[in-house]
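Input set for joint prediction.
Command: fold jointly, output C-alpha cells.
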Amino acid sequence: MSSLSRRERVRVFLESPLVQRAVICVIVVNAVTMGCETSPALMDSVGWLLVAVDHTALAIFTAEIAVRLYAYGRAFFKDPWNWFDTVIVAIALIPASGPTSILRALRILRALRLVSAVPSMRRVVHALLTAVPGMASILGLLVLLVYIAAVISTKLFGDILPERFDDLPRSLFTLFQIMTGDDWGTIAQAVMDHKPWAWVFFIAYILMSTFIALNLFIAVVVNAMNDAEDSPTEVRTQAELQAVREELAALNAKLDLLARRP
Amino acid sequence: MSSLSRRERVRVFLESPLVQRAVICVIVVNAVTMGCETSPALMDSVGWLLVAVDHTALAIFTAEIAVRLYAYGRAFFKDPWNWFDTVIVAIALIPASGPTSILRALRILRALRLVSAVPSMRRVVHALLTAVPGMASILGLLVLLVYIAAVISTKLFGDILPERFDDLPRSLFTLFQIMTGDDWGTIAQAVMDHKPWAWVFFIAYILMSTFIALNLFIAVVVNAMNDAEDSPTEVRTQAELQAVREELAALNAKLDLLARRP
Amino acid sequence: MSSLSRRERVRVFLESPLVQRAVICVIVVNAVTMGCETSPALMDSVGWLLVAVDHTALAIFTAEIAVRLYAYGRAFFKDPWNWFDTVIVAIALIPASGPTSILRALRILRALRLVSAVPSMRRVVHALLTAVPGMASILGLLVLLVYIAAVISTKLFGDILPERFDDLPRSLFTLFQIMTGDDWGTIAQAVMDHKPWAWVFFIAYILMSTFIALNLFIAVVVNAMNDAEDSPTEVRTQAELQAVREELAALNAKLDLLARRP
Amino acid sequence: MSSLSRRERVRVFLESPLVQRAVICVIVVNAVTMGCETSPALMDSVGWLLVAVDHTALAIFTAEIAVRLYAYGRAFFKDPWNWFDTVIVAIALIPASGPTSILRALRILRALRLVSAVPSMRRVVHALLTAVPGMASILGLLVLLVYIAAVISTKLFGDILPERFDDLPRSLFTLFQIMTGDDWGTIAQAVMDHKPWAWVFFIAYILMSTFIALNLFIAVVVNAMNDAEDSPTEVRTQAELQAVREELAALNAKLDLLARRP
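C-alpha cells >
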C-alpha cells in the first residue's frame, strides 16, 4: 500500500464499497427529506431538522466532488457522469442565494445523483441513450409531421377553436395531445361542427403519427434485439462450430502424417 | 401399495386427478357464490344457501390444507404455493369474527386459489414473476422520475391546482394518471392558464416516462425471446451440426485404420 | 373433361377464378347497398333498387351454398368455412319474416362472407385463431383478476358510486373500462373523495392488469416469431450446413476408395 | 471533365454536397417563415420579408426542378421522389392565383421536400412504405370490422344517440374514436341508458378491433425483424461455416494427392 501515491490512496478510498454505499445512503435520505419539505405540516414541526439534513447532504455532495476532482485530476472531466454530478450539485448551490421558486424546486434534481451512484442504473441510462441515435431519422420525420400539421391547423382552425389552435405553439401542444390519444374526439367534434370535412385532417394525422410512432418503436426493439446477449442456442451453435473446426484440424494433421509416409 | 406409509398414501390421494379436480370445482363454485352474494336480490331469496356453500367451501379448504400439512410434514413449508394457499385461507378465516368491511371484501381472494390449483396458471404466474428481476433497474428509474416530478410539481403547481398537486401523495397519484395518458390535457391546460411555460414540464415528463416505460417493455420482450423455446430452424441447425460431427468422427476412424496399415 | 362426373364439373366451375371473383363482387356490392340502406334520404329516392339488389344478392348466396352442397356432398360439412357461410346466410334469411330490429341489423354480417371468399383474408383469420390457444392461461388469469376486483369494488364502493359499482355486471364493465385506461382518473377521484385509501385498489388493479396484458401480448409476439418464416440468414445457414455434409460425404467416399487399394 | 456533356456537368453540379445542403437550407428556412406567417403580430411587423422569402424559396424550388428535368431528361420521371417534389411545388404554385384557404394552408406541404432532400429520411419513408403491403390483408379485415360495426350501430343506436350514430359517416368516425380508446366509456354509458345490453356490442367491438390491431402490429414487427441486418452472432456463424468449408476443401485436395500416389 505504501507504494501508492496519496492521490491513488484517495481513489481507492472513494471506490471502496463502504464509501459508495454511504453516498447512496445520503442521496436517498436527502431525497426523502426534500419530499418531506413539500408538506407544510412537517415543515412547521420538524422543519429545522429537514433543512439541517438538506444542508449537510449538500455539503457532503460538494465535498465528495471536490475530493474526486483532487483524486482523479484531469481524468475527472473525461467521465460524463462527473459532469452530470457537478451540474446537479451546482444547480442546488445557486438558488441558496436567489429567490426564484423554479430553481428552488429544481433542487430535487439532486435525487438524480442516485443514477450516477448505482452502477445498474448507470447501465440502464447508458442503454437508453444509445438507443437514441438509431431513432433520429424517424423522430425527425415525426417532428416534421407535427410541425406541418400545426401550421395547417393554425391556418384552418385558428378562427374556429382559438383556445386550441390560436397560434403555432398552442397548435403544437394540441397536436401533441392528439398524438397521445387524449381527448382528441372532443377537439375533432368541436372543429367538425364548423368544418364538417375536418375529420379528414384528424384521422389522417392520427393514422400517420401512430404509424410513424409504431415504426419508431419497432426500430428501438430491433436494435435492442441485435444488441441483446446471444441466446443459449446461439452460444451452443458457436461452440459446436468451434468443435467441428478442431476436429477438422485433427483430420488434417493425420492426413499430413499419412502423406509423409513413403 | 401396502409398502407405502400412511402419509404416502395420503399424498397419492391428494395428488390424484379426481381430488385435484374436485378442489378446482369447489374453488369455482365458491367464487361464483361469493359473486352472487354481492346482489341484494339474490341474498334475500337464496342467501342462506350462498352462506352455507361459502362456509362449506371454507371448511373444505381448511381441511385440505390441514391434510396437506399432515401428508408433507416439513416439506409443506418449502413450496411457496402452500404458503400462498395458507395465507389466503387465513384471510378468509379472520373476518368471520370481525366487523371490518375491507377484510370481508377480501374473502374473494380465495378465488386466487384457482391459480395454485391449475398447473398451467401456476406456470404463467411463475413466468410473470421471473420477469420482474430483469425489470428492477428500469422500474427504479421510472419510480425515481415520478418521485422527482412529484416534488417539483407540488412546489410549483400546488397553489394553482390544489385538487391535483396539493401534497406529495396527491401529486404522485396525478403524475401516475398522466403517465397512463388519462386526461392529461385537461390538467396541463388548467396549470398553463396560470403558468404558460408549464407545457415544458408536462411534455418533458410524458416523453421521458413513455420512453422509460417503452424500454421497460422492450427489456421484458427481449428476456422473453431469449427464454423462449428454440425455433424449429434452430433445432434443425443443432441436429445438422450433430450429424456433421458424427460424420467427422467416422472419417477420423477410417483415417486411423488407414494409418495403421503397413 | 368428359371423364369428369357432373359433380366434379360443378366443382371445377365453382372454383374457377371467374366465379370466385363474381361472388366477391356480389358480396362487396351487397355490403355497399346495405350501408346505403342506413340513409333515409337514399331509401326515399332509390330504396326500391337497394332492396332489389339486397334480395338478389341473398338469392345468389343461397343458390351458391346449395350448389356447393350438391357439388361437395358430405365434404361440404368438413370445411369450417362452409359452416361459417351457411350460418351467416341463415341469419340473413330469418329476419325476412320477423320484426326484431337486432336481427335486421345483423344482416350486414353477410359482409363477413368476404373473409371466407378472399384466400388471403382466410389465412389472416386462421392465423388470428391459432394465436388464441397460446393465450388461454394468461387470458384466464386476466379474467380472474377482473372478476376478483369486481367483487371487491362492488362490496366496497357500491354505496359510494352506485352508477359505477352498483352490482357485479356494472362493476365488471367499469373495471374493463379502467383496464383500457379510459377516464379512470375521474372514477378513482370520485371514490377517493369518500375513501381516501382507494388509490391502493385502483393503482394495484391498473399495474396488475397492464402487466398481465403486456405478458399476454408478449406471448403472442413470441409465438408469432417462432411461427414466422425463416429469415434469409437462417436459410443460408441451412444451405451451408447442407453443403458441408455433401463435402464430408465426398471425402468419405474418397477415403473408402483409398482404403480398398492394396 | 471536358469529356462530360453539358447535361452531365449539370448533374454533377446538382448532386454536389454543396448544392444539396443549400437546397436543404432553403427548405428549412422556408418552413420556418411559413410557420411565422401564422402569427398576425409577425405578419404586421415583418410580413413583407416573410412573403419575399416565401416567393424566393418557391422560385428556387421551381428552378431546381426545371434544372433537374433538363439534366436527367426522361430519367427524371422514373424516380418517384421527383414526382413527389413536382406535385408538392405544383400545389404551392396553384393557390398563388386562387382564393381557397385550404390550398393556401397546404403550401406548408413544401416542408415535406425535406424528406426527399435528406437521404436518411428517404430511407425511413421507403422502409415505412415497404411495410404497408404486408399489412394489407389485416388492414382490410380491420376496415371490414369497422364498416360492419358502423352499419349495425347506425341501425341500432341511431335513434338513441343521433350526435354519435346518426348516419354511416358519423358512426364510422365514432367507431374509429372508440378504437383509439378515447372516451368510449361515456359513449357506451349513454347508449346503455336506453339499451342495457349494448355493452355486448361495445366490448366485443373493442376486443376484436384491439386484437386485430395487435396482430397488425405483430405482422409489422416480424417483417421488420426479418428485414433487419444480421446480428453479430449470425455474421460470426456464417464466417465459421465459410472457414469449415475452406478447410474441407483443403482436406479434399490432400486426399486427391494421396490417391494419385502409386
